[in-house]
C-alpha cells in the first residue's frame, strides 16, 4: 500500500475503521515479573533518584511500577509476548506506510503500594487508536496500550498507559540555496537524506558571564553556510516551570523551596516530594556547585551541536541537582567533583541558557 493509497483510505475512514476494530483486544497477557518486589532494587532506585523517603524500602516507590514488569537485556518476561492482535495492528500500520515508531508519553495510576515479597503479574490491552494525525515527525496514528499490574493473588495495584506514534516520516525542509529555485517538500524515500546543517562549519558561541556580564563576540563563518546552522532545540515551557525560565531572562537561577518542610527542589514541580505540600517559594541559587556526574556526547550527531562535548549533572550548593552544559573546560578534562560556577550562554538571538563553567585551574582553558 502506497502513501497515496493511505491518504485515500484514511479519507474514506476505511483504514481508521480497521484500526479502531483492534481497540479492546489483548496486547499481551500472562506476564510475570522476573523477580518479586525486593529491597535491593528499591534501595538502588532510591539512591539513583536521590529519594530519602523513610517509608522506603519498607514499600516500593510508586513510580517503580513499570520496573517490576520490564524484561531487561535478555528479552521479555515469560508469558508476556505480544499478542497476535497487537502484531496484526502494527503490521497493518507498517503496510500503510507508517513504519516508523516513537514513544510519546505514559500515564500511571497507583492503587496500593507494592511491598517486598509481592510477586507482580500483568497483562495489557489495546486501549485506543487515534484518528490520523500530522506532527513534525510525520503523519500517522497514536496507539495507546494499558497495562494492568496485579499481585499474584489477583489484586490490582496499578495501571500503566503507554502511547506510541506509528508514522510515515516527513521529509525535512531544506534551506534554500542562493540562486536555486526552492523545491517543494515531498514524502521520504528509501535514499538517505543529508542531515540538515551537516555542511555548516562550527561556530564559537557567545558567552555572557555572570557578574560583570562581559561578552565574547562569536566568530562566524563567512558566506552562506554560516546562516544555515540549525538553531538549538527550544525549551518546553509550561505552567509548572514558567517561573524558572522567567528567572533565566533576568540572569537568575531559581529553584523552589517548600514553605512547610523547607526542602529545596529542582526541577520545578507543583508539589513537595518530601512532605507533599503544594506551598512553595522561588529562591535564587548561588550558582556554585560541583560536577556530580557527566557524559561526553559523541553520537548521535545533532546539527546544532559540535561533538564531542560534555553534559554534566551539577550538584548545587543548595543540595539540588540539574543537567547542564559544561563550558570553559575541554570535554576530556571534566571530572567528577570538579567545581563549577553559573554563567548564562546566549546560543542564538532568541535563546539564552544557564550553563556551568569549570573553575578548576588545572583544567580551565
Structure commentary:
InterPro entries: ChsH2_C, ChsH2_Znr, FAS1-like_DH_region, HotDog_dom_sf, NA-bd_OB-fold, Thioester_dehydratase-like. This is OB-fold protein. It comes from Streptomyces demainii. Residues 245-281 form the ChsH2 rubredoxin-like zinc ribbon domain. This protein is 14% helix and 32% strand. It has helices at residues 3-11, 14-20, 39-49, 84-95, 224-227, 242-249; strands at residues 26-32, 100-110, 120-129, 133-134, 138-151, 156-169, 207-208, 254-258, 264-265, 280-284, 288-297, 309-316, 321-327, 339-348, 351-358. The strands form three sheets. Strands 1, 2, 3, 4, 5 and 6 form a six-stranded antiparallel beta sheet that branches. A hairpin with a 4-residue loop joins strand 12 (309-316) and strand 13. It is globular and about 60 Å long.
From the structure above, extract its key features.
6 helices, six-stranded antiparallel sheet, 15 strands, 365 residues, alpha+beta
Amino acid at each position: 500500500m502506497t502513501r497515496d493509497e493511505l491518504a485515500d483510505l484514511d479519507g474514506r475512514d476505511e483504514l481508521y475503521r480497521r484500526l479502531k476494530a483492534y481497540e479492546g483486544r489483548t496486547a499481551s497477557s500472562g506476564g510475570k515479573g522476573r523477580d518479586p518486589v525486593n529491597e535491593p532494587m528499591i534501595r538502588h532506585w532510591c539512591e539513583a533518584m536521590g529519594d530519602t523517603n523513610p517509608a522506603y524500602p519498607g514499600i516500593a516507590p510508586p513510580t517503580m511500577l513499570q520496573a517490576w514488569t520490564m524484561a531487561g537485556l535478555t528479552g521479555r518476561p515469560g508469558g508476556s509476548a505480544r499478542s497476535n492482535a497487537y502484531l496484526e495492528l502494527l503490521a497493518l500500520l507498517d503496510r500503510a506506510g507508517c513504519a516508523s515508531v516513537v514513544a510519546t508519553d505514559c500515564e500511571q495510576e497507583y492503587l496500593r503500594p507494592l511491598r517486598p515479597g509481592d510477586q507482580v503479574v500483568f497483562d495489557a490491552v489495546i486501549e485506543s487508536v487515534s484518528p490520523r494525525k500530522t506532527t513534525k515527525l510525520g503523519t500517522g496514528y497514536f496507539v495507546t496500550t494499558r497495562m494492568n499490574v496485579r499481585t499474584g493473588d489477583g489484586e490490582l495495584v496499578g495501571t500503566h498507559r503507554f502511547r506510541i506514534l506509528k508514522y510515515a516520516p516527513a521529509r525535512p525542509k531544506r534551506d534554500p540555496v542562493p540562486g536555486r529555485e526552492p523545491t517543494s517538500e515531498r514524502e521520504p524515500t528509501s535514499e538517505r537524506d543529508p542531515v540538515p546543517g551537516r555542511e555548516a562549519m562550527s561556530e564559537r558561541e557567545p558567552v555572557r558571564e555572570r557578574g560583570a556580564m562581559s561578552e565574547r563576540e562569536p566568530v562566524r563563518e563567512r558566506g552562506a553556510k554560516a546562516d544555515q546552522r540549525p538553531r538549538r532545540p527550544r525549551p518546553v515551557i509550561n505552567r509548572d516551570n514558567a517561573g524558572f525560565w522567567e528567572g533565566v531572562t533576568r540572569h537568575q537561577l531559581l529553584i523552589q523551596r517548600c514553605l512547610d518542610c523547607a526542602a529545596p527542589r529542582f526541577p520545578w514541580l507543583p508539589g513537595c516530594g518530601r512532605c507533599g505540600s503544594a506551598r512553595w517559594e522561588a529562591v535564587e541559587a548561588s550558582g556554585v556547585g560541583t560536577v556530580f556526574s557527566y557524559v561526553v556526547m559523541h553520537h548521535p550527531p545533532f546539527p546544532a551541536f559540535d561533538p564531542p562535548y560534555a553534559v554534566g549533572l551539577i550538584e548545587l550548593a543548595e543540595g539540588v541537582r540539574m543537567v547542564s552544559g559544561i563550558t570553559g573546560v575541554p570535554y576530556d578534562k571534566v571530572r567528577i567533583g570538579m567545581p563549577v560556577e553559573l554563567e548564562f550562554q546566549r546560543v542564538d538571538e532568541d535563546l539564552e541558557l544557564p550553563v556551568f563553567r569549570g573553575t578548576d585551574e588545572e583544567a580551565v582553558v
